[in-house]
Queue: 2 jobs
Job 1
Amino acid sequence: MRVLIAYASGFGATAEVAKEIGKVLAESHTVEVQPMAKVQSLAPFDAVLLGSSIRAGRWLGGLPRFLQRFRRELETTPFAIFAVALTARTLEGSRRLLAESLPQLLQRFPELEPFASQAFGGVLDYDRYNLAVRMVMRRVAQSEGLPTSGLQDFRDWQAIRAWAQELSQQLQAKEMT
């Protein structure tokens, strides 16, 4: 099966997650990983995986634009969605984030239904932020009881790989039908 993994990433954490999922899927499928903004067509692909970071409860603009642009193709192409967000650093946070954010995103596209979705913890990298973002992120981190300087990586690579394995199996099953 030919799979596109398209991502919207603000500071690179989501791109890294997309690439890791791509490595796992490439063991059983033909995979292409690229930023959503560079995707020209879904025609060459049998399935699509969309990844986006979520900030302040909002998906990066690239994902809603992608869904709008390719909504007709996605009606007939199996697709899954993953999110990367600071609030998804715990299992409960991940569940809550998906329960709140995914329906909000998809209400604009009622004809679209992903076959899978997941949320993963994100990264705080204060050295990469400009002053305004750094100040906002420090306030957010402080309110969550998290460190307010340096690099804090909350991605669970084992969970990311496990989900990618599940996706691979689901895609193989879809290929058989």
Job 2
Amino acid sequence: MSTVVEVKALGKRYGALAAVDGVSFNVEEGEIFGVLGPNGAGKTTTVEIIEGLRKPDSGEVKVCGIDALREPERIKELIGVQLQTTSLYDQIRVEEAIDLFGGYYRKAVPTATLLEEVSLADKKDSYVSKLSGGQK
């Protein structure tokens, strides 16, 4: 198996608080990997750094061999992330949510095409909060 995510000595501080302190791990191709810990342990910050949404103060991150700190736009095209909460997005319509998240990617796919692909074309004007768990 090959390594698809490599994190080495990752560090992120918010003032005096070390939110992430020397975190290192690898995720192998095909592996199911979870990040567990108490509130405030730095889990979300670590994932946001891997995603390219936040910059670390120290350390290295590679996704599929690509330096995530130097090329965050390429990383965003390779990965998908399940948010821990969608409460903000429950107040927007399905079509708006697709447009919002589609803005993160350079390669544009028409919203109507995506909605058809996931069998939600008939729900495009529905609020996300009204979708079933599987539809979300």
